[in-house]
Amino acid sequence: GSTYVPDGEAKRIWQRLGASFGSDSNAETTATQTVYKLDLPNASRESLDESLKILFGMMQNPGMTDAAIAAERPVVLAEMREREGPQSRAAIANRRVFFAGQRLAMRDPIGTEATLNAANSAAITAFHKRWYRPENMVVVIAGDGEPEVFEQLVKKHFSSWKGEGTAGIIPDFGDPDPNSTSAAVVTEPTLPQYVSMAYMRPWRPVNDTIAYNQQLLIDLLALQMINRRLESKARNGGSFLQANVGQNDVSRSVDGTFVSIVPLGADWESALLDVRSAIADALATPPSQADIDREYAEFEAALAIGVEGSATEGARKQADDIVNAVDIRETVATPQTALTVFQEMKPLVTPERLLAATQALFSASAIKAFLVSPLPVDGGTERLAQAIAKPVEVSDLRMAQNSVTFADLRTIGRKGKVKSSNKIARFDVEMLELSNGVRVQLLSNTAERNKVSVNVRFGSGFGGLPSDQETLAWSGGLALMASGVANLGQEDLDRITTGRRMGLNFDIDDDAFEITADTRPQDLRDQLHLMAAKLAFPRWDPQPVLRGKAAGLIGYESYSSSPRGVMERDLQWLIRGKDPRWKTPDPADFNRLNPENFRKFWEPILASGPIELMVFGDFKRDEALAAILETFGALKKRSVKSSKAVIAAKSFPPSNAGPVILNHRGDPASAAAFIAWPTSGGMAGVRESRQLEVVVSIMNDRLFEIFRSQLGASYSPQASNYWPLDLPGGGYISATSQIRPQDTERFFNFAERVAQDLRETTVTQDELDRVTEPLRQLITRASSGNSFWMSQLEGASFQPEKIEALKSVLTDYTQVSPQQVQALAQKYFDPAKKWTLLVLPEKQATAR
Description:
The chain is α+β, with helices and mostly antiparallel strands. It is built from 30 helices and 19 strands. The strands form 4 sheets. It has a 7-stranded mixed β-sheet with strand order 8-9-10-14-11-13-12, with helices on both faces. A hairpin with a 4-residue loop joins strand 1 (25-29) and strand 2. The two termini are 46 Å apart.
């Protein structure tokens, strides 16, 4: 609450204007700034005027009475509880070692339980007057409007504000202390082993000139060369699973170069030694011109992509960029300026300049190291300190810069033909069937300049896998795309895509396996060639499988580090009646994985089943079609027997008298509760599935209003709706929250009361409008980009009913009456069918 609105009303006003709480209206505090954010959809002068007035009231005169503070205190304590756990403990320990002797070492923006409980109106008001003042404030507005109007409204609301009392003096954040402890070891049984190193230099404000930015870009090139060498070593069976280096200015406290290492086994000392040896090589010998040319091409392409997309760059990103620049006392430049600066500095990018940059990046007034281990390390602190001080021999990880181009990638076959074509005029989508059976969707537009999204959907996804036995489907994301294509391995693929926007991303949907990428018009043909070759001529390099297996084993225990992690691991399997298709692999599963059974599982999947190719974006239709016919049109005709026959998920679990109980090994003061009611699935109920989003949005809003804001029992309660359109069942409505163990019954009772009230009482029109207007704006904004249309039309080549359903997408979400909300609640919030799950601290219960 503040001058112009009572407590909680600002959220409701912005909902009526179409802004969703959390995603469109939010605030955050870091060690150096507080930021209030509002992404105002469909903004008019009137709505922006009202919004700036409310924000000004929050700045000038927030309602910080003792009653308001008492109401908010449990919310902040709940936020603190949700953050606590092994990762949080490790991060705090890391900060205390890296920033020893500086304010950042002991200052967490959220405070401590003692300071939060001691907070009162007088103290907080005094703090606010000292720091939240006009001379400390920057107002950033970006988006669709006239700058003159923005300026007028800012002046109208903020120009008369005068600070009261004495302003705070920004303190010295201190410099890295070379005499403080150089190493620390933390034992966390649920976290994977990792090593962090920091080369620390004092942070100082800079003159943000072109010359300064040129040096930053040279620094980035130097670091990227090291990262590429480290990644190559990890891919080919090094002592570490992954390692990288990076530079960061941290909270106006440190200009640091940071090294992160995940050892492949328990021998962290060898991994640290190998990475330090690679850095030593970069410090001793200039890079080759071939190395420089490769990294320069990559950076130039990335900057060019930024220029190409600048016309449709989001206002939210622009505002965030400015805020972040203000925070570090720097400025921003347009994407074109950044590209021009980079291109004009090419004569400066010499081997000698890059060597000097590398040496500067790894110079330091203090060098620190931090080890997290799941098991105690005998003499760990001393061993770690000795390991970072030990002289190292140069290890040459430099890569041979072989000349590889797309001409080296095996061609697919004889060019195909178009068998049939159908234009869906309403959506400008062209549906094609090729002579080999491949279905194609083309949507050419300039909504996103110089960007083309490609989605290759093949086979039957989860729906085509057996529901009575485990498979290796989970292994696809680990290694399938990394295993190479035809005659080219992963390193070769990196080389042929240097300086280009291309990729191979893999996912599994309910009705298809997917290979996706974003590319540019000039790269589209080769992107299609790469994807088609992956299906026609998959390569089966063993090392990515072994690396993926190691990553799975290393990371598995981290699931048990928090209630949320346990939920992520087990919920989808349990709520689908323990259907093995949705089971998270455990260590036994990883240990059974090998290159031979990986290939045996995936090879027939890549070779059979229908193909649907979706190409949406900024391209010329005839040129794209020619490239499609030369690539996907040239594939052999595939076996499609029972290709779209899907197996429904196993039954929703029966209602339970008491919750299923799982255990986590994290913070003992933290638990998670989940309650769900079964719904359905399939395209026949698509309209109902959309209307259920309205019901769930109302439930979500009530969870926030009461369970969070009024009761302070949770920081992030959430309701959601899952309705699988490509499976005949398996849907559910759920509510979940991270809470204290003693509040679990409180959560279940509240969620059931909300469900009961929705069944028994018709919602008000205002409450309904406050969820449908944000949904309307969300869909309106999303539909301006191609990813929305692509997601809606996935599978439409085989299910034309998806096209018909798309015609009513906006009205289905927004034209819902209070009576329809009640009818849906009565249909699905059946107390006799509810299913509950609890995740409790390990010592408080045993798993069922």
